[in-house]
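Appendix C. Worked example: WD40 repeat domain-containing protein
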Amino acid sequence: MPQIAPYSFDGHVETAAFLKDEPVFALSDGTIRFPAGGETVVEAHAQGLLCARPDPFAPRLLSGGEDGRVVATGPDRQCAEIASAGRKWISAVAGGPGGAVGYAVGRTAFVREAKCETREFAHGRTVEDLAFAPKGLRIATARYDGASLFFAGTDAKAQELEWKGAHTGVAFSPDGRFLVTVMQENALHGWRLDDGKHMRMTGYPSKVKSLSWSAKGKFLATSGAPAAILWPFSGKDGPMGKAPLELGTRGDTSVVAVACHPADDVVAIGYADGMILAVRISDAKEALLRRGGSGAARTLAWDPKGRFLAFGTESGEAGVIDIAG
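Step 2, the predicted output written as structure tokens:
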């Protein structure tokens, strides 16, 4: 078994991440915890944290709370307010290129650029999630009946991608060719962006709550079943007409979190009973990383070099697993 540095917190761990080489945990109580080398507690949100996501373009953790604040926490263990929506809740945050930050408040998506200019993008229904494209200042939002695409630096009309139902999460493929949304029903939906062709990804027994792209974007790993479901995206048609891989199958519990290794074709899988596996995509070979615990392993994150895996659970258990240990 790999070595685990265990941590215990008082509340639900919303997000585990690494800032450079240091593990960091965002808790639902509004605090950001740096446990390594003597714990530092950063009071980011006084009234509770609603969302937290590492910025893929910069070493910082972005978070939004019930206090209406968007906060950036850096590896120096300091936090700074990026934006404020008054008494309105921040439901989603995302980091973009060039220091841009996106966030959602009710029916409006906001993009604040590094030069402090903020643009608003109004919607007819609640903005459930948002994401930046891998290149260029383009942002996608998840909403009822589909997704919307905006060029954040212009006033150009949005490109609307329609599909009936509630869409609660959104992600671009690493090469920017596909957009995928999580639906309120037990399904994903996708579009090939050059022509708008639809991609239906169904068959889940429960709602998908975790997504992760493999290192080169060949697969999209997802939770929502007794196995990690990996949809193939290497061809021009994405998963259309192709069956997904099923890795780490356990009949007695569900997968609740997935995290693909940053360099190798390996996926870490977290289960509802707290167990964590690492599975090689090519041959489905499994390695047990953690036997289980008192709560579901809801969040997983690799360090940039792919040696350490941070995890957090609903019960406040957390830790860092040394894969080479």
